[in-house]
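Predict the holo structure. Ligand: flavin-adenine dinucleotide.
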Amino acid sequence: MTASNSESVEDRSGILEEDDHMRGMERIAMEVVRVTYPFASVARVTGRIAPLDPAPWMPPNQAVRIAVEEPAGQRPVVRVYTIRSFDPVTSQVEIDFVIHEDDSPAMRWLRAAKPGTVLPMIGPRQHFIPLPSGDKRAAIFADETAIPAVYAILKAWPAGLQGEAWIETPDHAAFEELPRPEGVRLHLLLRPAGVAPGSGKYLIGAAKALPDPAGWTVWAAGERVEMRDLRNHLRGAGVARADLQVLGYWKKGMSSSDLDRARLAEYEALRAEGLTLENVGDIDLPV
Ligand SMILES: Cc1cc2nc3c(=O)[nH]c(=O)nc-3n(C[C@H](O)[C@H](O)[C@H](O)COP(=O)(O)OP(=O)(O)OC[C@H]3O[C@@H](n4cnc5c(N)ncnc54)[C@H](O)[C@@H]3O)c2cc1C
């Protein structure tokens, strides 16, 4: 008998297959075209997809759930990644995987990936992009896992919008590769070698130095505990709730499967009350 894979998240109620959760996302396969290493900290996977309709893949900051392991008789082990770019002419997407030290499902998939590898995925789901109203400016705080999202957001930056972005990465080159649209100032928070990500120092330090906090619409993504602290600081400093979109992309010391179990339990409880996906306050979950 095969041992069960503890990274597979059970969905006993089938709630994840319902329309409220799927919201027009499709099940699609990506065939790997190449894997390159543009910087030491990143593996860039270029793949080909054949979407039913390319339109939903076009706007910036689309996330996909990729099936990195498919244990027999269980749900696949899934991880969330960002579509860094989509080219409707070649039907190619790019996904940047930040390389980290743990022997994790996504890192195992990456080590085995080569041209021709097929990766099942569900998506795309568009995530928030900063679109301030009135004369507010856009502020972005991102660690290296959110650089692909920032890349896509900057590529599609609306003319006339003023913004600043603070990017934490151990890799100068990953910062240099970001687009520089007019009206945006980029700040590099270079994490020294030997300091682990999610240190709680650099992005929060930048957020604490944000002048006139009430004058910004904020988008932030990175390590979960760090992001919660950043959110709490900015709320306390006067950023309106409606102007704060803060996401925990990963959690130090915890697998995404455990995060997904907590998300699923919350979602099930909300659905039982007749509420929908919008009501899941991800960053406030007690994990
Ligand atoms: C909307 C969204 C978009 C995302 N987009 C991207 C993206 O484009 N590129 C990207 O690289 N990641 C992205 N992430 C984060 C990615 O899903 C997580 O890093 C995920 O945990 C990786 O899975 P894993 O199997 O490697 O590690 P897991 O099995 O989830 O975790 C195993 C261990 O590895 C640690 N770990 C996980 N990720 C990191 C990390 N980056 N640095 C250090 N330690 C880590 C965990 O703390 C844990 O201890 C995104 C997440 C979300 C929610």
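The chain has two domains: 15-126, 137-250. The CA atoms of residues 163 and 184 lie 5 Å apart.
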